[in-house]
Structure to design on (160 residues):
């Protein structure tokens, strides 16, 4: 079965392309490729169960990608019933809604699946990232303003 973009999603993509320096846009059922004027190219894998295909459902796809054992995060999470919230896309990580404001979450804060934990900026679009899990933030794994790749661990959440 081939998954298709919704009309709203397609409109958003066209608007992004028109407002940016994108010269190339490719869409495949397994990934999206976008190229900008400066020669950079972004390739993002797409999951058929991810938010690209189900815009009305809560975003949970970022929970599906565990860090590699080399990070040491997965081992710690398995031993202490912790979940890892990972980046559902690449972009610049912002811990707060605006510079100088309080962060969305900090270590020790309780979160629900719908709690906004950070914002990822990609191509001048600010995307709110929700926890997708209920529990307590144990550790923030990235610095404010840091560029993160798709699947990068952002937070550890204790789920017990």
């Amino acid at each position: 079965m081939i998954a298709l973009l919704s009309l709203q999603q397609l409109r958003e993509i066209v608007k992004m392309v028109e407002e940016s320096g994108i010269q190339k846009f490719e869409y495949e059922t397994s990934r999206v490729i976008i190229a900008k004027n400066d020669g950079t190219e972004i390739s993002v894998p797409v999951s058929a169960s991810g938010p690209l295909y189900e815009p009305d459902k809560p975003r949970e796809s970022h929970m599906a990608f565990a860090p590699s054992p080399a990070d040491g995060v997965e081992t710690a999470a398995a031993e202490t019933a912790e979940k890892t919230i990972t980046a559902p896309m690449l972009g610049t990580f912002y811990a707060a809604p605006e510079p100088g404001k309080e962060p969305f979450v900090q270590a020790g804060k309780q979160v629900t699946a719908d709690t906004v934990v950070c914002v990822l900026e990609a191509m001048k679009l600010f995307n709110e990232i929700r926890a997708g899990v209920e529990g307590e933030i144990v550790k923030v794994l990235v610095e404010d303003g840091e560029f993160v790749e798709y699947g990068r661990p952002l937070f550890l959440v204790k789920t017990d």
